Amino acid sequence: MTILAMYRWENNAVFVSDFRVSYDGKNQVDVLSKFITFDNRLGIFTAGNLELWKGAVPIIQSVMREVTMDNVAEEGPLQLALTRYTESIPTARDKPRLKYGGIGFMLDEETGTNIVFSLEGEASRGLRITPLEDGCIVMGSGKNIPMIEDRLGAVLNQHKAEQPDNVPEIESKLKGEVTDYITRCGASAYRKLGISPVFATSRLAAGGFSMTGIETHGGSFSTYGPPRRYHYSFQRIDGQMVLQNHLTNRVIVVNEFKDYSDSEVDVLFDPLGLMEGFDPIPCAVGDTVYFMNQWVEDDFLDRTVYKTGIFYFKGQPMCNPNYQQLANIIMEELDNPEAVPYVNTGDIGLIIPAEKCSSFEAGISTQILNHTWMAEHITNYDKFYDPPADSAGN
Asked: Do residues 304 and 327 lie in contact, with contact meaning Cβ atoms separated by under 8 Å?
C-alpha cells in the first residue's frame, strides 16, 4: 500500500511517493524507495503488490533495447511484455487478484522532451499503459481518499498559474498538500492506508529528472499543546539513501527493490508526529463525525464546530477530509473570569448521542455559546468548558 501522486504541466512533472511497505495484518516498514530506473531513460514510480513488481523488473530490463519515446506508452514492446507476464500470474479462486501499477516516464535528453504514462496491472488479466496529459493523478491506497485528485489538481492549477516556471515550488506544494489531506483523515489514516508520513519528491523537466534530497527543521507551536521540534533529512550518504531524524540520531536505510527483504518488526519514521496527532474517529456517530477546534488565549476565544463523513479502506474507518463548518464564534476582549472556564483544547472530538444529532445540527449556529444547550447535546462538553461549580448554566 502506498500513495503516489503526480502533477503534470507542459514539459514538466512533479512526483510524491512514500516509503512504506505493509504486510496484511502484520508489520509496516518505512524502508523502501518506490522508484526504479532503467538505462537512465525510463523511470517508474511503483504502487501495488511488491512481489508482482519484483517479477516485472527483469521483464522490463529484457525489452529496454526496443523501447522508444514513440512506443513506450503504446501497444509496443513494453506493454506487450508486461501483459504477457501479468496474464501468466496464477490466482486463487477464493482470493482477490493481486494488483500493481505505477507512473512511468521516458525522457530524451537530446531534445529535452519527455512522456509520462500510467501502468495498471491485475494478476491473470494483463496490464494497460496509458499516456498522461496535464493534470493530477493519484495511485495506490491513497487514491481511496475522497476527492483527493480533484483537491490536489485545483490547488496545483492555481499555484502553477501564479508560478508556472517554478518547478521546485510546485513540487514542494504538492508534497505539502498531500501531507495535509491525509492528516485531515485522522492520525490513524497513515497506518490504515499503509502510507508513511514522510515523502520523497522528484521533478521532471526539460533538463532531465532528479529525485530531491531534503533536510528540513523547524517546530510547530500551539497555544493548546507543547511545542514540537523536528529536524530530519532524506539524502544519499556513502551511496545509500537514508532517512535520518537528527534530533534522535535515528537512521533508516531506504532500500531499492533489489536490496529489499521482509522485516519482522515495525520500522516507522515519523519525525513530525503525524501518526500521534488528532483523530476524532472514536467519537463517530454512525458514518458521521463531529469535532471542534477551540483556541483560548488570555481574553480571546475562537470556537469552530465541524462535521464530516467517514470513508472505509479494507473495512477501516477514516474521516472524510472535506470538512463542513457548522458554526464559528470569535470573541475578543473577554473579561478574565469569563475566559477562565474555556479549556484550550485545540481539535477535540464531540460525543453526541445519535438521537440528538439532528437537533444539534439545526441549532449549533445560534446556540454555540449556550452552555446548557451544548451540555445537553454534547456528552463530553465538560472537556472544553469547565465552569466553577456555583456558576449559572449560561
From this structure: yes
